[in-house]
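Hello K.,

You asked for the raw outputs rather than the summary table, so here they are, unedited. I folded two proteins back to back in the same session to keep the settings identical. This is the first:
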Amino acid sequence: MVPDSALKRCRECQRLLPFGDFYERGTGHMGVCKECARSRSKAYYASHREQSRLYYMAHREQVMARSNAYYAQNRERILSRAKGDKAFVERARANHKRWRDAHSEKMRAKNKAHRVRQRQQVRQTTYELVDPVEVFEKAKWRCRLCGCKIPRDLRGGIEPNAPTIDHIVPLSLGGPHTRANLQCLCRRCNMAKSDMYQGQLRFA
């Protein structure tokens, strides 16, 4: 195994960089550095935006499965980076804000449609007034699916381990908005779960 401190020349930018600055592929490393690989990926997506969207829509389950598998294999590294790398967190927040600002009309329309749909779903099911903090504290601020810690101060944030409330049986599938049907999930698991039924109903 090549140590990360060993040097390798990027065939694109021609810089001599440590092996740790190159993505691993198979039994070796890519010929271009991570920075160049990311730039190439962004350029490709920018010129193939519609094709990428159509591919995702047609292969959503496979894409999510690959994403979940990657997260499962690299969960500690991802969480430690999100928690300890302030620059990474600030970049993520800045990117998220920049996207929201550039798509403000789309976001407003999407959020309005989501609220209308959720209100309709709630009206059609059993509703119970629940304090989200009560659900978080009952779970001892841990994700019910992956078990990671979800810090109180990340509530409302975009970090992968930010705490969120989830319906075990989704409202879209007729699940009630009650304590027994609510669980505490990290943001990553909540997004991956989407409108699937995952978790264990609690009747106590």
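The second followed immediately with the same parameters:
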Amino acid sequence: MAENLGPEKLQIHIEKATPEDAQELEELKYENLKDRIAKGKLKASLPKRLAMRATAKSVSTVRQRIENHEENVYFISRRGQEIAGMCLMIWHAKDDCFQFRQFYTRPKYARQGIGTALLEEAKKHARTSRGSPKLMYLWTGDYNQEAQDFYSHRGFRATGETKEEGGQTWVRFEPNPELS
């Protein structure tokens, strides 16, 4: 079990991912999802669980997103040589906004401030890029109370908008203007 060093003792450095990080980013994502399933925090059928692994196609998609840095930005945090956490931001030009996606931390590094540091860096990037976009937003599963609490405690609020996708209900969050 990883030692929880606490935010005051953990030095967190955030950087942009490179195409060489694509494989590890996909592995981190699926490690996080499988951990949530094992803890009962995410439901998935057996075929879906078995499909939760990095594939050549999924790694290629991540690599292409990283290479298309005008539209997408992956922020990562490392512990030694290992990627400990990640966040993907996608630029939507037609709406003049950033969507935050794929916030994942390796389970052994949970609750050490990495997710908060990634979110703060993403918000900073969104505020200073592209002439200050009109909006930042994210979607999280209605089943994922832990993520909803995480975002709420860091200045986001549920807008009341939901969507159905992939058999899940998703809740939209935006920065709370009263706290930003």
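The domain at 14-133 is CATH 3.40.630.30 (Aminopeptidase).

Happy to rerun anything if the numbers look odd on your end.

Regards,
P.
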